[in-house]
């Protein structure tokens, strides 16, 4: 029986390789029907893990954080200011993403 796991990671850290291996590590390969076939999507990540260049348990979890009222109000004000100012809008996008 397999247990369902949940983990939050930054999508910017993911590549086009197998997401399960990147997020949860080599343990995911145990149940994978594509392991060691030409359809395996995690060969590069598995190699990085075995070479010690990628975390063996996958990417680290990102703590879920909610904006407090003060930060939320500041963000709302930035969005409001950026509505009619293309430069401010560009700066806002760069800050957020």
Explain this structure.
The protein is mainly alpha-helical and 97 residues long. It has 2 domains: 1-64, no CATH class; 66-97, no CATH class. Helices cover 40% and strands 0% of the residues. It is built from 4 helices and no strands. The longest helix is centred in the last third of the chain and has 14 residues, at 69-82. The protein is elongated, with a radius of gyration of 20 Å. The N and C termini lie far apart (40 Å). The mean pLDDT is 82.
The structural domain count equals 2
Shape: elongated
Q: Which structural category do the helix and sheet elements fall into?
A: mainly alpha
How far is the N terminus from the C terminus? 40 Å
Poorly predicted regions are none
Helical percent range?
A: 40-55%
- SS strand fraction: under 5%
Profile the largest sheet: none
Mean pLDDT: 82
Cα gyration radius (Å): 20 Å
Number of strands: 0
Q: Give, in order, the helices and strands.
A: HHHH
- Note the total helix count: 4
What order do the helices and strands come in, and which of them pair?
Elements lengths: L18 H6 L18 H8 L18 H14 L3 H11 L1
Helix pairs in contact: 3-4
């Amino acid at each position: 029986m397999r247990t369902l796991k949940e983990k939050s990671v930054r999508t910017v850290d993911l590549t086009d390789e197998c997401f399960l291996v990147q997020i949860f590590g080599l343990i995911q390969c145990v149940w994978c029907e594509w392991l060691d076939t030409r359809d395996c999507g995690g060969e590069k990540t598995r190699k990085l893990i075995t070479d010690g260049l990628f975390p063996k348990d996958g990417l680290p979890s990102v703590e879920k954080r909610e904006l407090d009222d003060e930060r939320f109000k500041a963000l709302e004000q930035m969005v409001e200011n950026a509505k009619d100012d293309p430069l401010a809008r560009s700066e806002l996008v760069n800050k957020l993403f």
